[in-house]
Design goal:
The protein is mainly alpha-helical. It has 15 helices and no strands. The N and C termini lie far apart (66 Å).
Amino acid sequence: MLKTLRNQDEPVKVRLAALQAMQAASFSVVAFESSRGDYIATLRAIADDPDPELRQRVLGILAREKDGYAQKKLLEGLKDPKKALVPPEKALQLLSYDVHADAYSAARDIVKKPPDEMARREALRLLAADATAAPMFEKLLRDKKELREVRQIAASALQALKPEKMQQHAREILLDKSDYDDIKATSLTALAQFGDQEAIGKDKALLKSVDRLSVGKASAKYKQSASRFLGKYGQ
């Protein structure tokens, strides 16, 4: 099967079937151990195969194995598109299996100068584990001109990295009459699940704002979130 996998003269479907069979066999750790070295060597040898589907499958397996060779090739592709073996968004997804400082650096470069919006979003998702990225996520969260999906990514990242900052921004967003309903709903969820319950219960301005918006022209999603939030505090 390894010989079939390496042979570019074989039909791609046959090579993909061989790859699938080898991947299934690899789950039997003890039985497969004697073949693992050859298996990894073969995967590395065909990581730059002409067929894009095979390349992506192989790099995915190597990335999940936290293979240094695959990480190097993925990073090279992000820094130099001419060397890219997979699209940038896929490279970022694969690098997230074992993130190192070089991956964070590459992701920051993508955010600053993205080849497209999909790659930018994947770069932000990867940076969600980087504590030094918290200020950037704060800025993105509060930017009303930013894409809604990006602001949602920022909210999730900030909740994980700096929960106290997320609570602060969530309150300010809910007091802002001009912000979007879906961002407000996310803010409500953050406060309800992770906020200081005693402080929220005494925050009359916040409760009043949530109550006012819950009966206005808000979306159904926001009204449901607001109803649960207010019910929690006896409003």
